Amino acid sequence: MNKYIASCGTASRRGADEIISAGRVKVNGKVVTGLGTTIETGNDTVTVDGVKIVPVSKFTYIMLYKPKGCITSVRDDRGRKTVYDYIDVQVPHLVPVGRLDYDTEGLLIMTNDGDLVHRLAHPSGEVPKTYSVRAEGQFPEHILAKLRKGVEIDGVLTRRSKVKLLEQGEKEARLSVTITEGRNRQVRRMFEAVERNVVFLKRVAIGELKLGGLARGGWRYLHDDEVEYLKSL
Length: 233
Ligand code: URA
Known about the structure:
By secondary structure, the chain is an alpha+beta fold. It is built from 6 helices and 15 strands. Strands 5, 6, 7, 8, 11, 12, 13, 14 and 15 form a 9-stranded mixed beta sheet that branches. The chain has a 4-stranded antiparallel beta sheet with strand order 2-1-3-4. A two-stranded antiparallel ribbon has the order 9-10.
């Protein structure tokens, strides 16, 4: 119990014992004064003076609204902007989870939690990623069906995807596309495979995690429940 409270940054382990003995700690709504009580992180709710406490993560998790015109890597031989130019805090070993093209904007997660990077970035992973797409041309049902069923990229069919036509204009259309793979330039190349040119591409969600109202080029720390969600994917 004192170890748990210390891991939340509330007190030292000795300080935690005093807090517990004073009857200020509740576990799942009940006052607990036994110093030997074991806490199961994630299952038990612990409060001190009525305020919920959670362990401080040793990792940093950031959501960036990557603008177009920068690359998703640490540095560039050609001196182009990188996503690091937009994160104005010094966090060691912060890396992007997956990539967005130079010309693509939207939701990018950055973290120094190597396990999470590995799990989420793996190309065989099933995590759905949703894109807002603007593309030239007409999108009759048979073109949408092809995109949904899978098209060939480098001789390999893309997995089934969700494609919604949101608006069909005279020259351009607006669509929502959800894919469960992360092949290189996948959305653009899927559209090329049906002879359509993408003119705007923005990732709006990774699973249930949405970009929301973040400003282009802005970033924020992920909330604990968002981190838990990503770990559960
Ligand atoms: N699909 C693309 O074409 N580009 C991206 O950056 C992401 C998905």
